[in-house]
Amino acid sequence: MLEHFKGDEVFVKKILDYQFQALHHQRMVLTPFYNPHEQEIVRSVIGKELKVLSYGGFTNAENQRMIICPDFYEIEKSDFEIQLVEVIYRQQFGRIQHKDILGALMNLGIKRECVGDIFDRERCFFACTKQTYPYIIQTLKQIKKSKIKLQECHEDIEIVHDYTSRSFILSSMRLDKVVSTMFKVPRALASEAIRNGHVKVNYKIVEEVSYLCHNSDMVSFKHHGRVKIVDENKQTRQGNYVVSGYFYK
To answer: Mean pLDDT for the chain?
Structure first.
């Protein structure tokens, strides 16, 4: 099986262990937060032998915890042990953004897998595991220059992504060309970033500069943001590709 998941072998071994626990010990296994790529692997590995459910605390959450269990289990949202938290602050020192909240949590020593989606619009929210919440609320008192207050949230929050779109002409759909053109960096810098594991395609690190991107691929560039590629099914007279880039805010 591992040969079908090149680059994800360690993760797959962990999921196989979860599968063994759920199948042979007839128990419910609760995972950390997984991104969409990891969620897809879990469902592929587990197959139909067991029940696989996921929930991220928010409606339309990308990062979700998963439950793997025998069919006879009746699962409720509370079983996912997720805490939604609102970050309350005064904006006199500027807006607090996704990267600021994530950075503050990582600086506390919180593992990324213990934090779900972060939402930073008129109000700021994040999801975390219930196990880490007491430590976070006791320790996190300031983000950037703003003093903050953390408050449990029991609302139904829907995540709606804002984005800006721009059109591009690409001579190639190679990853280095896509990153260089869309993020406006030299191609050599784009290639170096890819080889260093700073670029993801559909939430998975891709280190091949010649990797060919496709329609609807999500490309993430560390410290630069992420963009969804939309093929406009057009070509210039020179045979170049006309695509749109939807940049997530």
So the answer is: 95
205 neighbors 7 (Cβ within 8 angstroms): yes
Instruction: Answer yes or no: are the C-beta atoms of 63 and 80 closer than 8 Å.
Output: no
Query: What is the C-alpha separation between 152 and 79, in angstroms, rounded?
Result: 17
Are 247 and 165 a contacting pair, CB within 8 Å? yes
Query: Do the Cβ atoms of 42 and 20 come closer than 8 Å?
Result: no
Token digits of residue 104 = 């503050």
Burial of 2 (0-12, 13-18, 19+ CB in 10 A): exposed
Q: pTM for the whole thing?
A: 0.88
* 169 closest CA partner among 182, 159, 160: 182
Tell me which of 21, 50, 77 is where a domain ends. Answer: 77
Residue count of the chain: 249
**What pLDDT does 166 receive?**
96
Q: Which domain holds residue 27?
A: 2-77
Q: Which amino acid is at 141?
A: K
Q: Taking phi first (over 0 means left), then psi (-120 to 50 degrees means alpha), and beta for anything else, what does residue 94 get?
A: left
Distance CA 16, CA 46 (A): 8
202 in the Ramachandran plot: left (φ > 0), alpha (ψ -120 to 50) or beta?
left
Q: Which of 77, 108, 130 is the last residue of a domain?
A: 77
Distance of alpha carbon 31 from the chain centroid? 15
Decide: 167 and 244 in contact? Cβ < 8 Å.
yes
